[in-house]
Amino acid sequence: MIMRHSLLLSTFKGSPIIKERFLITQWCKMKTKFILLIIFITVTLSAQETIQSFISLKNTGVQEFLEKHPEYDGRGTIVMILDTGIDMGIDGLTKTSTGEDKVIDVQDFTGQGDVQLFDATIENENDSSFFVNSEKDYKVAGADKLSLKAKDDKYYIGLVTEKRWMNSGSRVRDLNGNGTTDDKFYIVAFETESDSESYWVAYFDANSDGDISDDQPNRNYKEKHDVIKIKNETGLTYFTIALNIFPKEKKVVLFFDDGSHGTHCAGIAAGYSIGKTSLNGVAPGAYLMGLKLGNNTLSGGATVTGSMKRAYLYADKISKEREEPCIINMSFGIGSEIEGRADFEIFLADLVRDNPYLYIATSNGNEGPGISTTGLPAASTSVLSSGAVLAQEIGNDLYGTVLDRDIILHFSSRGGEVPKPDVVSPGAATSTVPNFAGGDRYWGTSMASPYSAGVLSLLLSAAKVEFPDVKIPSRLLYKVLRESAVPMEGYVKIDQGGGLINVVNAFELLKKYIAAGEISKFENYTISAFAPNMPDEISSSMYVRNGSYLTGDENFSFSVIKDDNNTTNTFYRLFNLKSDSDWLIPISKQTRIRNDHSATINYRLDKSKMTDFGMYNGTITAYDSKTNTPAFEMMATVVLPYQFTSENNYSLTWKD
User: Fold this and answer.
1) Which residues fall in a coiled-coil region (predicted)?
2) Any bridge partners for residue 138, and if so which?
3) Which of 195, 329, 426, 529 is the most exposed place for a label (fewest CB within 10 A)?
4) If we measure between CA atoms, which residue out of 646, 637, 647 comes closest to residue 10?
5) Buried (b) or exposed (e) across 611-646, using 16+ Cβ within 10 A?
6) Is the CB of residue 85 less than 8 Å from the CB of residue 258?
7) What pTM, to 2 d.p., does this model score?
8) Which residues on neighbouring strands pair with residue 203, listed in sequence order?
9) Selecting from 3.40.50.200, 3.40.50.2000, 1.10.10.10, 3.40.630.10, what CATH number does the domain 33-112+258-521 have?
């Protein structure tokens, strides 16, 4: 391949894609949806008796870990899928590995499922009794034939029509397959009493026959796990519906996944017996909760800040109420101009500071391969962000490629001003999807994030058994995953973070840290560095996009301050400094942090070691002087662009 360019061109040293990374970003206009996802054609699931390759489990140590510890398969943990919903009626999401109901709670924070309730009276007509609201012209039969009655004779009626799904991402218009798209589904709700227990129920006219006496009462989903299936005359039920009743707000909220993205993520994280085969997700023993924040009537199942915050606050509440460790997966994101400083990232920092045992996995973004493309909220230090890998066996079995190794997918967002992603995980798989979905093979960092959430579930499941009295802060667990990941050859930190996630390595390191008392000594640190592209020229990593002006005589510095996590009255630690790159030179070999004082770590760039054009990416690591444990890392990235000058006649040529 011969190309000629008359512009400032940068290549990227240390990556398997050198000129191609720049050329792809220049010549390919990739469309990215708000949901970090690319969907491809259908692949039929089939059982694999010995090797599971449709969700890659081998190279990350998951297969080995579960063979050694089958009881540490996520049981005793909850994975919360903050997404477009979950279809709890699909094979693979009905039961855990121990036979319990898989999905234990669902909530919709988008408003898409809201159904307003109105006061209803009972009227008799032609030997039949009806629930009626004359003002809304609502009327449904069966009032005299219900198995339950309102304890205070107060009934409420609401209506759902097929038009609700007219603009749905599912493209389903005719839910029951009867050839029309204007069917009505009435809901009647009331408080009832039995066996000295008072509770609310809602009858849903699932067959749209205008009579609810042949329908079952539904309680709030988390109480009895009741579900509604609208029979499709032409095939399978398109999607499963659950509901929650909010009497004070006089509404019923329906929960369903008419986008498929959330159901796919759920299967990767915690699916069990997908398609009634031996295929499982990463943590088949884990419970699931579906917290819907993606409104599928909006493009790509988009969300808004209010929906996200309400979902996170609910997850935080559940995390504090229940004994099980709670892991959030949010495979959503958007580009961020000022990484790490968005309102929502500040919200997450406050949330995790208040609840350090809330574990959050997010997708790093599909804006790559350009550098500095990590989005929101992946740039936050309060989350574990994952880039996407195409595993060798997945490429071979699902995509028909001939790969001899795992590769990082081209679109996986890279770091720059922020030291992200934290790790990379398999980001291509077949998984669970609702029946309306045209395919079950997706790829994206959206798929990598639930994989990492599943790994978090495995580790916390194991820790509950082996260390029942130990609570592991979320950011310490992220640190363990970064340090135990396996670096992928040909990639640098801003491509892969610590490397390919590995649960076996992580569990061994976690046990080592617990035995050494690292949990009680664990601290978080805030790092500030020179980043001229930022409004105040400061970010959490050094990032110089155009280093052509650098002479090598400059001195730079990182500023490091301890976050207030240690409750002891005094704090004094010495750290030994070590660089992983010969061009990145710490001027001092040691630094210290005392109480709330900041440390200034000076460094310089050795231009004699930066003779090639391209990208230079390195880190200086601070090790605790007593334990030699890595305490924090400081990342630097410098790009030396190719020069178009009179000496080369303003022309450069590359041959591939």
Assistant:
1) none
2) 133
3) 195
4) 637
5) eebbbbbbbbbbbbeeeebebbbbbbbbbbbbebee
6) yes
7) 0.91
8) 188, 217
9) 3.40.50.200
